[in-house]
TrEMBL record:
<dbReference type="GO" id="GO:0009003">
    <property type="term" value="F:signal peptidase activity"/>
</dbReference>
<dbReference type="InterPro" id="IPR019533">
    <property type="entry name" value="Peptidase_S26"/>
</dbReference>
<keyword id="KW-0378">Hydrolase</keyword>
<dbReference type="InterPro" id="IPR036286">
    <property type="entry name" value="LexA/Signal_pep-like_sf"/>
</dbReference>
<keyword id="KW-1133">Transmembrane helix</keyword>
<dbReference type="GO" id="GO:0004252">
    <property type="term" value="F:serine-type endopeptidase activity"/>
</dbReference>
<feature type="domain" description="Peptidase S26">
    <location>
        <begin position="27"/>
        <end position="97"/>
    </location>
</feature>
<dbReference type="GO" id="GO:0016020">
    <property type="term" value="C:membrane"/>
</dbReference>
<dbReference type="GO" id="GO:0006465">
    <property type="term" value="P:signal peptide processing"/>
</dbReference>
<feature type="transmembrane region" description="Helical">
    <location>
        <begin position="20"/>
        <end position="42"/>
    </location>
</feature>
<feature type="transmembrane region" description="Helical">
    <location>
        <begin position="150"/>
        <end position="171"/>
    </location>
</feature>
<dbReference type="Pfam" id="PF10502">
    <property type="entry name" value="Peptidase_S26"/>
</dbReference>
<protein>
    <recommendedName>
        <fullName>Signal peptidase I</fullName>
        <ecNumber>3.4.21.89</ecNumber>
    </recommendedName>
</protein>
<keyword id="KW-0472">Membrane</keyword>
<dbReference type="InterPro" id="IPR001733">
    <property type="entry name" value="Peptidase_S26B"/>
</dbReference>
<keyword id="KW-0812">Transmembrane</keyword>
Length: 189
């Protein structure tokens, strides 16, 4: 006797949910790597754009990943300290380069600004923007000083859920095989 009831472990809805979870998990892990791991490997940092001076290239709330480079050229978007040893950082595009007494001097300007910034020297440049992630800076600003803790907890929760879902699926699959073998034996006896 055959059963016509579909095995609940193999329903299309479950497959879609599992696939969606896998995609979300991979996206979160890739995002975490892009924000936390890659900048550290490059020796740089993830920074949130606070003003519209670089629009339309970067909008307020975007996150830029800036890392040191061997040299900087006209057209590079760089993060710099407008005043040496001041923690304030600005991210603008280099519009002119000249040779000063102490090495290269750069003139920068925000893409949305009409005026050039004061010239800066290479020691003031923290790095060039390697890539950016739209909107992620909003999340970073909301998390504030607890950002690292929140990322660790969220990552651990997602990994824990993934392990739990995988283990549950494997146990259900094993139990299903056992029921199938028992059912087959009864029919063939």
């Amino acid at each position: 006797m055959k059963s016509t009831a579909q095995n609940p472990q193999h329903t299309p809805g479950r497959a879609i949910r599992s696939g969606a979870f896998a995609v979300v998990l991979l996206a979160v892990l890739a995002l975490a790597a892009a924000v936390a791991v890659v900048p550290r490997v490059l020796g740089g940092s993830a920074l949130t754009v606070l003003t519209g001076s670089m629009e339309p290239t970067y909008a307020p709330g975007d996150m830029v990943i800036s890392a040191p480079a061997d040299r900087y050229r006209i057209g590079d978007v760089v993060t710099f300290q407008p005043v040496s040893d001041d923690p304030t950082l600005i991210t603008h595009r280099i519009v002119a380069v000249s040779q000063g007494a102490d090495g290269p001097e750069y003139v920068t300007r925000g893409d949305a600004n009409g005026n050039d910034d004061e010239p800066i020297v290479e020691a003031q440049v923290m790095g060039s923007v390697r890539y950016h992630i739209p909107y992620l800076g909003h999340v970073s600003m909301l998390a504030g000083e607890h950002r690292g803790t929140i990322i660790i907890i969220a990552g651990a929760a997602l990994i824990g859920y993934g392990v739990f879902a995988t283990a549950s699926a494997l146990l259900q699959q094993r139990a299903s095989r056992g029921r199938h073998r028992l059912h087959t034996r009864r029919i063939t006896c």
